[in-house]
Specification:
The chain is α/β, with parallel strands linked by helices and 123 residues long. It has a single domain, classed as Glutaredoxin (3-Layer(aba) Sandwich). Helices cover 36% and strands 21% of the residues. It contains four helices and five strands. Strands 1-3-2-4-5 form a five-stranded mixed β-sheet, with helices on both faces. β2, α2 and β3 form a beta-alpha-beta unit. α2 crosses α4. It is globular, with a radius of gyration of 13 Å.
Length: 123
Amino acid sequence: MTTADADTTPATDQHRPAQLADESELDEFVAGAETALVEFYTNGCGLCQSMEPVVGNVGRELGIDIGFVNPRDDPPLIERFDVRRVPLLVLFVDGEPVARRDDGFVPGEELAAWIREESENCE
């Protein structure tokens, strides 16, 4: 599955990744999730494609919602989230962005630990 093949509906109980088309869909997606991880990607980005299964697996493992959005499809997202590199991972808790990282490929265990740590800091 490629990032473009992600489900186009909000995540279900199985936490299927959702493909988000624009800022409006992103806002609706994170507003409906207690904890959500969104990957900002661009088409043709090899690192983005390699992160997709990792992000999906970690989402299922932790029971959080996962979304994918291409900020080039909605340029205001670039400025709003200060997208300078992709993949950019943004963690949302209760609809608010609480942490971000854009340091390339992140192994699953490291990503899960980061999400747990950042989520606990919000409690």
